Protein backbone atom coordinates (compact mmCIF):
# COMPACT_ATOMS: atom_id res chain seq x y z
CA UNK A 1 0.00 0.00 0.00
CA UNK A 2 2.03 2.99 -1.12
CA UNK A 3 -0.78 5.18 -2.33
CA UNK A 4 0.21 8.80 -1.80
CA UNK A 5 -2.54 11.11 -0.71
CA UNK A 6 -2.03 14.77 -1.65
CA UNK A 7 -3.62 17.87 -0.12
CA UNK A 8 -2.79 21.56 0.01
CA UNK A 9 -1.38 21.80 3.52
CA UNK A 10 -0.28 25.43 3.25
CA UNK A 11 3.46 24.73 3.50
CA UNK A 12 6.11 24.30 0.85
CA UNK A 13 6.84 20.62 1.43
CA UNK A 14 5.22 18.26 3.86
CA UNK A 15 5.31 14.50 4.05
CA UNK A 16 3.48 12.70 6.79
CA UNK A 17 3.90 8.98 7.37
CA UNK A 18 1.70 7.00 9.71
CA UNK A 19 4.33 4.88 11.46
CA UNK A 20 1.82 2.93 13.52
CA UNK A 21 -1.98 2.99 13.77
CA UNK A 22 -2.69 0.45 16.50
CA UNK A 23 -3.85 0.84 20.06
CA UNK A 24 -1.64 0.06 23.07
CA UNK A 25 -1.42 -3.70 22.50
CA UNK A 26 -1.01 -3.41 18.73
CA UNK A 27 -2.88 -5.58 16.22
CA UNK A 28 -2.72 -8.57 16.14
CA UNK A 29 -3.00 -8.90 19.90
CA UNK A 30 -0.78 -11.65 21.35
CA UNK A 31 -2.71 -14.92 21.47
CA UNK A 32 -5.88 -13.53 19.86
CA UNK A 33 -7.51 -15.58 17.10
CA UNK A 34 -10.26 -13.13 16.12
CA UNK A 35 -10.96 -12.28 12.45
CA UNK A 36 -8.96 -9.06 12.64
CA UNK A 37 -5.94 -10.55 14.42
CA UNK A 38 -5.77 -13.44 11.92
CA UNK A 39 -6.57 -11.30 8.85
CA UNK A 40 -4.38 -11.74 5.76
CA UNK A 41 -4.77 -8.04 4.90
CA UNK A 42 -1.48 -6.29 5.77
CA UNK A 43 -3.50 -3.19 6.71
CA UNK A 44 -4.85 -5.16 9.68
CA UNK A 45 -1.34 -5.33 11.15
CA UNK A 46 -1.00 -2.25 13.31
CA UNK A 47 2.07 -1.19 15.26
CA UNK A 48 1.67 1.20 18.17
CA UNK A 49 0.53 4.70 17.22
CA UNK A 50 3.18 7.13 16.02
CA UNK A 51 3.70 9.50 13.13
CA UNK A 52 6.63 11.00 11.18
CA UNK A 53 6.22 14.61 10.06
CA UNK A 54 8.71 15.96 7.54
CA UNK A 55 8.53 19.63 6.63
CA UNK A 56 11.23 20.71 4.18
CA UNK A 57 14.31 18.90 5.51
CA UNK A 58 13.12 18.84 9.14
CA UNK A 59 12.03 15.40 10.37
CA UNK A 60 10.13 14.93 13.59
CA UNK A 61 8.58 11.82 15.13
CA UNK A 62 5.59 12.17 17.43
CA UNK A 63 5.86 9.56 20.23
CA UNK A 64 8.28 6.65 20.54
CA UNK A 65 6.18 3.62 21.32
CA UNK A 66 7.48 0.08 21.78
CA UNK A 67 7.70 -0.27 17.98
CA UNK A 68 9.87 2.83 17.41
CA UNK A 69 12.91 0.87 16.23
CA UNK A 70 10.93 -1.25 13.76
CA UNK A 71 9.17 1.85 12.44
CA UNK A 72 12.45 3.70 11.87
CA UNK A 73 13.85 0.70 10.00
CA UNK A 74 10.71 0.13 7.93
CA UNK A 75 10.57 3.75 6.76
CA UNK A 76 14.37 3.96 6.43
CA UNK A 77 14.59 7.07 8.61
CA UNK A 78 18.30 7.98 8.58
CA UNK A 79 18.07 11.41 10.18
CA UNK A 80 15.78 12.76 12.87
CA UNK A 81 15.71 16.33 14.21
CA UNK A 82 13.36 15.95 17.17
CA UNK A 83 10.84 13.85 19.05
CA UNK A 84 7.62 15.38 20.30
CA UNK A 85 5.43 13.63 22.87
CA UNK A 86 1.64 13.64 23.16
CA UNK A 87 1.40 12.14 26.68
CA UNK A 88 3.11 9.75 29.06
CA UNK A 89 1.33 6.43 28.44
CA UNK A 90 3.74 3.57 27.87
CA UNK A 91 2.55 2.83 24.33
CA UNK A 92 3.80 6.32 23.42
CA UNK A 93 7.12 6.29 25.32
CA UNK A 94 8.49 2.76 25.58
CA UNK A 95 10.85 2.89 22.58
CA UNK A 96 12.79 6.00 23.61
CA UNK A 97 15.95 4.01 24.38
CA UNK A 98 16.46 3.54 20.63
CA UNK A 99 17.23 7.23 20.09
CA UNK A 100 20.79 5.97 20.66
CA UNK A 101 21.04 5.24 16.94
CA UNK A 102 20.28 8.88 16.12
CA UNK A 103 22.62 10.09 18.88
CA UNK A 104 25.36 8.23 17.04
CA UNK A 105 24.33 9.36 13.56
CA UNK A 106 24.13 13.04 14.51
CA UNK A 107 26.70 12.98 17.31
CA UNK A 108 24.43 14.93 19.66
CA UNK A 109 21.57 14.54 22.10
CA UNK A 110 18.08 14.18 20.61
CA UNK A 111 15.93 17.29 21.00
CA UNK A 112 12.75 16.20 22.78
CA UNK A 113 9.58 18.23 23.38
CA UNK A 114 7.53 17.02 26.32
CA UNK A 115 5.18 18.41 28.95
CA UNK A 116 6.02 18.12 32.67
CA UNK A 117 4.25 14.78 33.13
CA UNK A 118 5.95 13.21 30.12
CA UNK A 119 9.29 14.51 31.34
CA UNK A 120 8.66 12.92 34.75
CA UNK A 121 7.81 9.58 33.12
CA UNK A 122 10.90 9.71 30.88
CA UNK A 123 13.14 10.45 33.88
CA UNK A 124 11.54 7.55 35.79
CA UNK A 125 11.39 4.92 33.04
CA UNK A 126 14.77 5.78 31.51
CA UNK A 127 16.51 6.88 34.74
CA UNK A 128 19.86 5.56 33.47
CA UNK A 129 19.83 8.18 30.70
CA UNK A 130 19.64 11.04 33.20
CA UNK A 131 22.50 10.18 35.56
CA UNK A 132 25.59 12.28 36.11
CA UNK A 133 27.91 9.96 34.26
CA UNK A 134 27.50 9.96 30.52
CA UNK A 135 28.68 6.48 29.66
CA UNK A 136 28.89 5.61 26.02
CA UNK A 137 25.83 3.79 24.68
CA UNK A 138 23.24 5.54 26.83
CA UNK A 139 20.38 7.39 25.16
CA UNK A 140 20.91 11.14 25.18
CA UNK A 141 18.00 13.55 25.12
CA UNK A 142 17.67 17.25 25.64
CA UNK A 143 14.19 17.97 26.98
CA UNK A 144 12.40 21.15 25.94
CA UNK A 145 9.33 21.74 28.02
CA UNK A 146 6.03 21.90 26.22
CA UNK A 147 3.26 24.14 27.38
CA UNK A 148 5.43 26.43 29.49
CA UNK A 149 4.08 29.98 29.77
CA UNK A 150 6.32 31.36 27.03
CA UNK A 151 5.28 28.60 24.68
CA UNK A 152 1.68 28.03 25.65
CA UNK A 153 0.55 28.32 22.05
CA UNK A 154 3.26 26.32 20.34
CA UNK A 155 6.94 26.00 19.58
CA UNK A 156 9.37 26.04 16.69
CA UNK A 157 11.61 23.21 15.53
CA UNK A 158 14.28 24.40 13.07
CA UNK A 159 12.02 27.09 11.69
CA UNK A 160 8.91 24.89 11.50
CA UNK A 161 6.01 26.15 13.59
CA UNK A 162 4.07 23.65 15.71
CA UNK A 163 0.81 24.70 17.34
CA UNK A 164 -0.27 22.92 20.51
CA UNK A 165 -3.74 21.39 20.57
CA UNK A 166 -4.56 20.66 24.23
CA UNK A 167 -7.12 17.86 24.66
CA UNK A 168 -8.22 15.48 27.41
CA UNK A 169 -7.64 11.71 27.66
CA UNK A 170 -10.02 11.08 30.58
CA UNK A 171 -8.15 12.91 33.36
CA UNK A 172 -4.84 13.18 31.53
CA UNK A 173 -3.67 16.25 29.63
CA UNK A 174 -2.62 15.37 26.09
CA UNK A 175 -1.21 17.52 23.33
CA UNK A 176 -2.24 17.22 19.73
CA UNK A 177 -0.27 19.22 17.19
CA UNK A 178 -0.97 21.37 14.15
CA UNK A 179 1.65 21.94 11.46
CA UNK A 180 0.41 24.06 8.57
CA UNK A 181 -3.06 22.79 7.76
CA UNK A 182 -2.33 19.32 9.07
CA UNK A 183 -3.42 18.27 12.58
CA UNK A 184 -2.65 15.19 14.65
CA UNK A 185 -4.69 14.33 17.73
CA UNK A 186 -4.36 10.95 19.38
CA UNK A 187 -5.53 9.55 22.72
CA UNK A 188 -8.42 11.92 23.24
CA UNK A 189 -11.96 11.78 24.56
CA UNK A 190 -12.60 15.51 24.90
CA UNK A 191 -11.66 18.54 22.81
CA UNK A 192 -12.24 21.95 24.46
CA UNK A 193 -13.72 24.84 22.43
CA UNK A 194 -10.40 26.69 22.57
CA UNK A 195 -8.76 23.76 20.75
CA UNK A 196 -11.57 23.54 18.20
CA UNK A 197 -10.73 27.17 17.38
CA UNK A 198 -7.13 26.14 16.67
CA UNK A 199 -8.39 23.39 14.39
CA UNK A 200 -10.15 25.93 12.19
CA UNK A 201 -9.15 25.50 8.54
CA UNK A 202 -7.36 22.18 9.02
CA UNK A 203 -7.33 20.26 5.72
CA UNK A 204 -6.14 16.89 6.96
CA UNK A 205 -6.82 15.50 10.41
CA UNK A 206 -5.35 12.32 11.84
CA UNK A 207 -7.31 11.37 14.95
CA UNK A 208 -7.62 8.35 17.21
CA UNK A 209 -10.75 6.20 17.12
CA UNK A 210 -10.31 3.23 19.42
CA UNK A 211 -13.41 1.16 18.71
CA UNK A 212 -17.18 1.47 18.23
CA UNK A 213 -18.16 1.02 21.88
CA UNK A 214 -17.88 3.89 24.35
CA UNK A 215 -14.59 4.08 26.27
CA UNK A 216 -13.67 6.14 29.30
CA UNK A 217 -10.53 7.70 27.84
CA UNK A 218 -10.80 7.38 24.06
CA UNK A 219 -13.32 8.69 21.53
CA UNK A 220 -15.46 5.94 20.03
CA UNK A 221 -15.96 5.92 16.25
CA UNK A 222 -19.25 7.85 16.47
CA UNK A 223 -17.67 10.49 18.69
CA UNK A 224 -14.84 10.95 16.18
CA UNK A 225 -17.35 11.36 13.37
CA UNK A 226 -18.96 14.18 15.40
CA UNK A 227 -15.55 15.86 15.64
CA UNK A 228 -15.15 15.50 11.87
CA UNK A 229 -18.59 17.12 11.37
CA UNK A 230 -17.46 20.08 13.44
CA UNK A 231 -13.88 20.53 12.10
CA UNK A 232 -14.81 19.69 8.49
CA UNK A 233 -11.36 18.71 7.21
CA UNK A 234 -11.00 17.66 3.57
CA UNK A 235 -9.72 14.31 4.77
CA UNK A 236 -9.61 12.48 8.08
CA UNK A 237 -7.50 9.42 8.83
CA UNK A 238 -8.29 7.22 11.83
CA UNK A 239 -5.52 5.88 14.03
CA UNK A 240 -4.93 4.13 17.41
CA UNK A 241 -7.35 1.40 16.33
CA UNK A 242 -8.17 -1.66 18.41
CA UNK A 243 -8.82 -5.09 16.89
CA UNK A 244 -12.36 -4.64 18.24
CA UNK A 245 -13.16 -2.05 15.56
CA UNK A 246 -13.09 -4.70 12.84
CA UNK A 247 -11.14 -5.27 9.64
CA UNK A 248 -9.77 -2.35 7.68
CA UNK A 249 -11.84 -3.18 4.61
CA UNK A 250 -15.15 -3.63 6.47
CA UNK A 251 -14.63 -0.48 8.52
CA UNK A 252 -13.72 1.62 5.47
CA UNK A 253 -16.99 0.59 3.80
CA UNK A 254 -18.96 2.05 6.73
CA UNK A 255 -17.25 5.45 6.82
CA UNK A 256 -18.58 8.68 5.33
CA UNK A 257 -16.89 10.38 2.38
CA UNK A 258 -13.50 11.88 3.26
CA UNK A 259 -12.92 9.65 6.30
CA UNK A 260 -10.32 6.92 5.88
CA UNK A 261 -9.08 4.09 8.03
CA UNK A 262 -5.38 4.78 8.56
CA UNK A 263 -2.80 2.06 8.01
CA UNK A 264 0.84 1.62 8.87
CA UNK A 265 2.92 3.21 6.13
CA UNK A 266 0.15 5.49 4.86
CA UNK A 267 1.71 8.66 3.38
CA UNK A 268 0.05 12.06 3.20
CA UNK A 269 1.83 14.72 1.15
CA UNK A 270 1.50 18.35 0.30
CA UNK A 271 0.30 19.21 -3.22
CA UNK A 272 3.41 21.25 -4.00
CA UNK A 273 6.05 18.68 -4.72
CA UNK A 274 8.87 20.85 -6.12
CA UNK A 275 10.68 21.71 -2.86
CA UNK A 276 11.46 18.10 -1.93
CA UNK A 277 15.20 18.60 -1.79
CA UNK A 278 15.03 21.79 0.32
ZN1 LIG B 1 -2.14 5.29 23.28
ZN1 LIG C 1 -2.93 7.03 26.08
Structural write-up:
By secondary structure, the protein is an alpha/beta fold. It has one domain: Metallo-beta-lactamase, Chain A. It contains seven helices and 15 strands. Strands 1-15-2-3-4-5-6-7 form an eight-stranded mixed β-sheet. Strands 8-9-10-11-12-13-14 form a seven-stranded mixed β-sheet. Strand 13, helix 7 and strand 14 form a beta-alpha-beta unit. It is globular. The two termini are 26 Å apart. The model has no long low-confidence stretch (mean pLDDT 94). The structure holds zinc ion (2 copies). The site of one zinc ion (ZN) has 7 residues, from helix 2.
Mean pLDDT: 94
Overall spatial form: globular
Which CATH top level class fits?
Alpha Beta
Number of helices: 7
Largest sheet: 8 strands, mixed
Order of helices and strands: EEEEHEHHEHEEEEEHEHEHEE
Keywords:
278 residues, globular, alpha/beta, seven-stranded mixed beta sheet, Metallo-beta-lactamase, Chain A, binds zinc ion, 7 helices
List the helices and strands and how they pair.
Blueprint: E1 4-7, E2 14-20, E3 50-55, E4 58-62, H1 68-74, E5 82-84, H2 90-93, H3 100-106, E6 110-114, H4 116-125, E7 141-145, E8 154-157, E9 160-169, E10 172-179, E11 182-185, H5 193-198, E12 204-208, H6 221-231, E13 235-239, H7 248-254, E14 259-261, E15 267-270
Parallel strand pairs: 1-15, 4-5, 5-6, 6-7, 11-12, 12-13, 13-14
Antiparallel strand pairs: 2-3, 2-15, 3-4, 8-9, 9-10, 10-11
Amino acid sequence: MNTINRYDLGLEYVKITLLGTGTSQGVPVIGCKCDVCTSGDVRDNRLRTSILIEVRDVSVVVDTGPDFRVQMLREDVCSLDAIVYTHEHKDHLAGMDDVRAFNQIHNRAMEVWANKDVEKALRRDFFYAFGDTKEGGLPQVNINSLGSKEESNGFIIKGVEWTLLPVKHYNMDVYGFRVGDFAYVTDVNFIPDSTYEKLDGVKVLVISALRKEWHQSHFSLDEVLEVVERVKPEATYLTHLSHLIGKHEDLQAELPEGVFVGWDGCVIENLKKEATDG
